[in-house]
Fold this sequence. Notes:
This protein is of the alpha/beta class. The relative contact order is 0.13. The model has no long low-confidence stretch (mean pLDDT about 95).
Amino acid sequence: MDKQSAVPELLAPAGNLExxxxxxxxxxxxxxxxxxxxxxxxxxxxxxAADLGRLLDYAHSRGRRVYLTFNTLLKESELGEAAEFxxxxxxxxxxxxxxxxxxxxxxxxxxxxxxxxxxxxxxxIHNSAGIAAAARRGIARVIxxxxxxxxxxxxxxxSSPVExxxxxxxxxxxxxxGRCLLSSAQGGWxxxxxxxxxxxxxxxxxxxxxxxxxxxxxxSAVSLIPEFRRLxxxxxxxxxxxxxxxxxxxxxxxYRMLLDGPPEPGPELVAExxxxxxxxxTRRPSLGxxxxxxxxxxxxxGRLGAFGNVVGSVTKRVxxxxxxxxxxxLHLGDRLRLVPPDGGEGESFTLINLEVQRRPAVKVRxxxxxxxxxxxxxxxxxxxxxxxxxGYDFSRQAASLPAGRFPVAVRLTLSASEWxxxxxxxxxxxxxxxxxxxxxxxxPFAAAEAETAFASGVPEPWSADRVEAAVxxxxxxxxxxxxxxxxxxxxxxxxxxxxxxxxxxxxxxxxRFYFDYRALPGAAPEPPAPAPEFTVSAFIPERxxxxxRQTIRRAWESGVRRFRIGGIHGFExxxxxxxxxxxxxxxxxxxxxxxxxxxxEEGAVAAxxxxxxxxxxxxxxxxxxxxxxxxxxxxxPLLVTRAPLPAGGWRxxxxxxxxxxxxxxxxxxxxxxxxxxxxxxxxxx
Length: 685
């Protein structure tokens, strides 16, 4: 099928098992979620390994997919645990891992090649050079930077060697992906580690401006769906792993309606989808960064940064709860969030107790004084937001899912005289059975019938993840005989499949990792001697790539042999120059020795370590890095964006000072701390 004629995958967020089932119920083709560690939404409930196995079985039995986020930066001390996590994931076989850290790419490529990799938006890939670089390093899909324009997307999609995934709905970060250090600078709560405290949703004061100056409106790309389809975009992604089942169900349902409709949906269908989206708890919608003319209105400075609908305010805090005056209805089971007056992330909870005039209540209307019992970190003046409604409870369905199984791949070769079956996990062994089937008079036996039949009746703890059949000739197979042959095949397989043998290669791979890791040097080599160098910009919009290539060529012809790069697009731009010495810089993140080894194998001669490393994490990296490490040369911006921001001095509600600068050469705005920030003094959480 031509990619322009294919319907894109609809990919939904799943913070837990219940939300994943809500997404599939509404029509999602795939969901993405994380385990308890190593994912960029650690505040979500996330999955246990057991729940992930159950979800994978549920999804695969219905032709759906599950992607797992493994997209945080790893400390040196976490590499062993990360490798063990990857070995466990290789047993479960999620449909792909979403990754940011170069170390994870190298670990998978070297030890767990069965894991399919998708490049996280946190990698900041924003041009065709970056896409090509990712493809050459085994990435199957690139989730693009959220601040690419529709014009840039058109150019990238035209020649992309891998699948492309774009966001179509949900919250937007003000900063370029992977380049926000604002939360980390204020106590080590790193967005690159899944622990962002959302300082972008707080109040700021600038010269001539005040409000939520870093808080963008939400993305709602309903009107762009026909264009994404024309471009052959592989996957349309809904943001929101912190969102409730009702939000995910409604949002997925709205986009499912559009994707199941005609390629150019009529106004009635669009209006129906938009009405459903308006019923969710969200911020004001926008087209995000796709359309440049909307940039001036993208920052919603006059509105509190929290998502959801305001349903009341705290009038008084007492010892055992909060007094609330409502501005909209409340109902037991609603998901609520208490937000400080100056903004920020607030704290969310499910409403399980409600009182009116000291009597228990199930619901209250607007303009009602009520009481919510409990211990909440809130004071008078806090706003109460509704972020999810009751009535979308998938907990029973989640609890009833059977335990996960381990998948095997089956290959069948079928003729009228002999049936043969092979299992990829049993190399060299073949099941064979002589048969004698009569020629088909009307409907011959088809491969699809065999694939469906042999995918069922699989003995525990196995599942037939993939069944492929090849049928030679035209013959008839009675249903009773087909059932008997399937039973015989799986009886043969059950005697041979051994769980400990099935995963023995993963234990061997893990042992190889530890052996290789111990062989790394005990101290980072000395940096190379100073030499003339050329800096390749960390952000090169698609339309500027040709000019960047020409500038690099002129530098090379002038005798420059050392190039400093801040993104993986630099590898691709310098590929025509095999003698080039590469030095990496932020935002190309090097937090651990495996990431440094990745770069060394790619031709780097030195690297700047990740900016956010605390003293302990940096010292551990210095003891194991196979690549020379250089100190950071320049003051690093805490946030970089294409959104227009007021230039000059800023202050937040806590008295912190900032400086905002616009660079006309790049079209980017950068926010710096007014005083020096030492990440080394933080505890990098």
